[in-house]
Amino acid sequence: NLTNRLSRVVKTLRGEARLTEANTQDMLREVRLALLEADVSLPVVREFVSRVKEKALGEEVANSLTPGQALVGVVHKELTSLMGGDLGPHASELSLAQQPPAIILMAGLQGSGKTTTTGKLARWLAEGGHSQNGHKSGKKKVLVVSADVYRPAAIEQLKTVAAQAGVDFMPSSADQKPEDIARNALDFAKRHHHDVLIVDTAGRLGIDEAMMQEIRALHALLKPIETLFVVDAMLGQDAVNVAKAFNEALPLTGVVLTKLDGDARGGAALSVRHVTGKPLKFVGVSEKLAGLEPFHPERMAQRVLGMGDILSLVEEAQKAINVDEAQKLAAKMKAGDKFDLNDFRAQIAQMKNMGDMSSLLEKLPAQFSQAASQVDSKQASRQIRRMEGILNSMTEMERAKPELLKASRKRRIAAGSGVPVQEINRMLSQFEQMQSMMKQMKKGGMAKMMRAMGG
Ligand code: GDP
Ligand code: MG
């Protein structure tokens, strides 16, 4: 990735005062290769690199930096800007300011994630997640409808998703015309005072004139305030052509980039933004309905740069970790108390709360996520459940004084939790590792640990 590539050349040439053709040449070549590796399409890469060069040449290099470090700064800034940072802080917000119902039309190829995203968005709006910057503008009454008449299973799929999201579903059937479905749904939404109507549509496996015509007709009829182009991040370079076709066929208002929980490095975000000029509004990060996040240009820039999406990682962890528990633990550490198996159990419970570990691990910097990708997350959660079983089979006293755990007690606990004694020993040695880490943390302080993590 870019960080690895750049760090090789970033250290050279200390002591130069300005960025020049000569001292940026190697770096710019690495930038170019890294972007191609991140699946940004070639013409976009070319233009980006020439933009960076233009901005960089003549820039002063601050005293403490090498020209390489200064150039990374320019790259990061420019990448953030092109990802949508140039559109201002509100670009990724949905517009719902319309005489209700505010209509959202979903467009994209088959399999891009339209139906799933319809459910995710519906849930997000119904829960009031659209209220930005802490201003709660309230939960929305949402209706969803499927105009996918080619695959009866698609209508069923949306019905299931709507039930999971807890929003209203307008039945439709494969023998109706898409436009009739849309008209009925709009009429129903008006009569029942829905705030938002989300219209899911059919997609084809490739770009297809009949599909484009159909969705154009739906657009003309519904006059949606949002027309969202849903695109699979795994398409990589091919995302360019698909985005171009949809952008020419429809007045898009925004983009949703799905399946970012996979291997995609996010280069498609840059390409799609480049060809459509439209803001990315959301990213899909899991198959589950909770796996939708507002788009953040600077975070996506960091992902492409391979620096890891630290910001959203921290945010996600904060959401998941029970603040009370964490504070109790911190207070205990400060008081110099011993970290015991009761604390260990609390930590394991928190790990479980963090939910889909794989989406979390994905956001770590490359050197960590490489290791993390070798962790089977299903296996890991099975392991966590077994550890909890063991801990629950102990008495409070045993957890507070692990040194009590001699052979006979271990045999009792093994029988109680249905695991072999070796597994208890394995867990105890993991606990001891954690205990010594806690001691070090207390000695060295949090700052030291964070620095170690930051590399
Ligand atoms: P549609 O044909 O455009 O309606 O696409 P679907 O919503 O049916 O999604 C196609 C497949 O992609 C399904 O298996 C979804 O579960 C999956 N999917 C959609 N969004 C995401 C995402 O953000 N992450 C992951 N991992 N899978 C997704
Ligand atoms: Mg669908």
Automatic annotation (TrEMBL):
Record keyword Cytoplasm present: yes
SUPFAM superfamilies named among the record's database cross-references: P-loop containing nucleoside triphosphate hydrolases, Signal peptide-binding domain
Localization: Cytoplasm
EC code: 3.6.5.4
Main location: cytoplasm
GO BP annotations listed: SRP-dependent cotranslational protein targeting to membrane
Recorded catalytic activity of this chain's protein: GTP + H2O = GDP + phosphate + H(+)
PANTHER family, A to Z: SIGNAL RECOGNITION PARTICLE 54K PROTEIN SRP54, SIGNAL RECOGNITION PARTICLE SUBUNIT SRP54
Quaternary assembly: Part of the signal recognition particle protein translocation system, which is composed of SRP and FtsY. SRP is a ribonucleoprotein composed of Ffh and a 4.5S RNA molecule.
Domain notes: Composed of three domains: the N-terminal N domain, which is responsible for interactions with the ribosome, the central G domain, which binds GTP, and the C-terminal M domain, which binds the RNA and the signal sequence of the RNC.
HAMAP family with a match to the protein in the record: SRP54
Annotated protein name in UniProt: Signal recognition particle protein
